[in-house]
Amino acid sequence: LKDALKELTGRGTVPNVFVKGQSIGGGMETAELYQSGKLKQLLQDHGLLDENQ
């Protein structure tokens, strides 16, 4: 599984978080996106989160 992830995303780490089929990184990268507010914007941009949430 890790080999397939690495081939697909360039990352062999688990967890590997995907949004609409695109890898946004592992746990640490996702936490950084959350803390910076960029994760919320990314989810809103993809229609996965209402602007009021």
From TrEMBL:
Protein name, entry field: Glutaredoxin
Source organism: Nematostella vectensis (Starlet sea anemone)
GO cellular component: cytoplasm
Molecular function GO labels: glutathione disulfide oxidoreductase activity
Top-level lineage group: Eukaryota
A single GO BP: cellular response to oxidative stress
PROSITE patterns hit by this protein: GLUTAREDOXIN_2
